[in-house]
Design brief:
Layout (H helix, E strand, L loop, with lengths): L10 H10 L21 H9 L5 H19 L2 E4 L3 H14 L12 E5 L27 H9 L2 E6 L16 E2 L3 E2 L14 H8 L5 E6 L5 H6 L3 E4 L19 E6 L2 H11 L8 H5 L21 E3 L3 H6 L6 H17 L3 E3 L7 H6 L4 H19 L8 H10 L11 H7 L6 H24 L4 E5 L4 H7 L3 E9 L2 E8 L5 H15 L13
Parallel strand pairs: 2-3, 2-6, 9-10, 9-11
Antiparallel strand pairs: 1-3, 4-5, 6-8, 7-8, 7-12, 11-13, 12-13
Helix pairs in contact: 3-4, 13-15, 13-16, 16-17
């Protein structure tokens, strides 16, 4: 395959020792000039670059060493980019020769991508499956092209729940045959969501930044459970071209980072029109002139109308572990929001909350058909691939000598394969989702003139998902069962307000703390 030759399944173990050969002189926390890299933000890193306290090569070396030490425990990275150090050297050279004002905030900063985001390089793009090993993509995913233009260094691929949890209902969250079982950065338990590796990697400092993809709860939940910041953008604000998607109607690519500011910088870099994803044309009207960094305001909470639906707290009691502590902390969080100038519109009622959370309201009916259509379209466009359709993937799983020993079935894929386009049932399901959205969340927001709905953990993700609405999860507290976040959700295009709210809350509380790595056997 010439220059497009794909790295084999063993690429991670093959290339990593080579990339780490020069690391013996680099301490695990600091660069040669004493700058602390661990937990550093984009702002910190760019200042270190500016004053010659750090190079991109040193930064990449640090993260490669972190991956070498931590990934065998957490399984957050599926593959490293064998060209990462060369890309770092290129960034260092550009920094020496180009005008500083010509370089973006992400220039020279390493980022990892969920493994269903295609890269036209030596790495695989597999959605966590053996079936796509060796496949050749026609081009970089739309968001990857924008990251490269910004000068970001594609460090590697983050692990994920295989096929975005659309293979089987019996497979564990965070598991894929390619990467194994992803582990929560704080508890070694459930990392949550299919973008699990993206959250694990930044939480454990195996990467500076990451991208996830959400259909329903795949950015918000792992961010909440791993004490990082996740932005689920308005559907269409970021391109899905080159992404192994579940549903073009619901899927959205967004940043998962350690701080709101870092997430805003990444979002700013990846939004925009892509001719390969027509939804970006309509959604481009929501992109603010001047970008998203301007909304990182300390007083961002002042005057914001935040809705509180107490019924969400009752729903949390249906899930075991740490509920009382997280609800108590949520009440404290609400007091903080009020003290910082937010106007809390409390005790609101979401008219169709029972239908959304206790009935078969149609989301899966629509997603099964959409998954088959979107996957077949993605596979058909590949230059080379072991599989060309969902039916091929199902057969591959049946006949693979490694997969046949795995107990997890593929019931979800079989149900999707049984669909035949968007028929009467799927159209009815879609209409019901629109009805629930219009008569529920939209009505609530507009009637009460809300800037955002504020909820504990990820309980509102379902509402945001089916309507294509944006949401931001910010670290909010810790229980004996692990971290949890607070979620701010809004109407389409409300990212500027959500960033103001999230940043104001983050700066008022500064709750996030690194995972207790000293408690794990490294």
């Amino acid at each position: 395959m010439g220059t497009n030759q794909r790295v084999s399944f063993f690429s991670f173990s093959f290339f990593l020792p080579i990339l780490l050969a020069i690391l013996s002189s680099v301490p695990s926390t600091v660069s040669g000039n004493g700058f602390s890299i661990r937990e550093a933000t984009v702002r910190d890193l760019q200042l270190a670059f500016k004053y010659n306290r750090l190079t991109s090569r040193q930064l990449v070396e640090f993260y490669l060493e972190q991956i070498h030490r931590l990934n065998p425990i957490f399984h957050g990275i599926s593959e490293v980019n064998p060209d990462a150090l060369d890309l770092a050297d290129k960034a260092d050279q550009e920094r020496r020769t180009k005008a500083p004002e010509s370089l973006s905030r992400l220039h020279g900063i390493p980022i990892v991508l969920k493994d269903n985001i295609a890269t036209k390089d030596k790495m695989n793009s597999t959605a966590g499956s053996f079936a796509l090993l060796g496949s050749v993509v026609p081009r970089d995913a739309g968001v990857v092209a924008r990251l490269r233009k910004a000068g970001a260094i594609i460090l590697g691929k983050a692990s994920m729940t295989e096929w975005s949890f659309f293979r089987s209902t019996t497979a564990p969250i965070g598991w894929s045959p390619r990467s194994g079982q992803g582990k929560n950065a704080y508890t070694l338990g459930n990392p949550c969501g299919s973008s699990s590796g993206s959250a694990i990697s930044v939480a454990t400092n195996m990467a500076a930044l990451s991208l996830g993809v959400e259909t329903d709860d795949s950015i918000i939940c792992p961010s909440s459970r791993n004490s990082v910041v996740g932005i689920k953008p308005t559907v269409g604000l970021t391109s899905r071209s080159g992404v192994v998607a579940v549903s073009p109607r619901q899927d959205t690519v967004g940043p998962i980072c350690r701080t709101v500011s870092d997430a805003a910088y990444v979002l700013e870099a990846i939004v925009g029109v892509d001719i390969h994803d027509h939804a970006t044309i309509k959604a481009s009207k929501y992109i603010p002139k001047g970008g998203y960094a301007q909304f990182l305001r300390i007083d961002g909470l002042r005057g914001k109308r935040l809705g509180v639906v107490r019924d969400f707290e009752n729903l949390l009691h249906l899930n075991p572990g740490g509920v009382s502590a997280s609800i108590e902390t949520f009440h404290q969080n609400l007091n903080t929001l009020r003290q910082r100038g937010a106007i809390l519109v409390d005790n609101l009622k979401l008219d169709n909350i029972t239908e959304l959370y206790f009935t078969d309201y149609g989301e899966l009916v629509a997603l099964r058909a959409e998954f088959k259509l979107s996957l077949n379209a993605y596979l058909k466009e590949l230059i080379a691939s072991p599989v060309r359709s969902l039916a091929d993937v199902i057969e591959f799983n049946k006949n693979n000598p490694v997969l046949e020993k795995i107990e997890y079935g593929q019931d979800t894929m079989l149900q999707a394969q049984a669909t035949n386009g968007i028929g009467k049932a799927e159209k009815a399901a879609r209409q019901n989702l629109k009805r629930l959205t219009k008569n529920g969340f939209v009505k609530l927001m507009k009637k009460n003139k809300l800037d955002a709905l504020v909820t504990p953990v990820d309980i509102s993700s379902r509402i945001l998902a089916i309507g294509g609405f944006p949401g931001i999860s910010v670290p909010a507290g810790y229980t004996k069962d692990g971290p949890f976040g607070i979620c701010f959700g809004g109407l389409k295009g409300s990212e500027p307000k959500l960033i103001e709210i999230a940043y104001g809350f983050e700066q008022a509380t500064k709750i996030r703390k690194p995972p207790p790595l000293q408690n794990f056997k490294l």
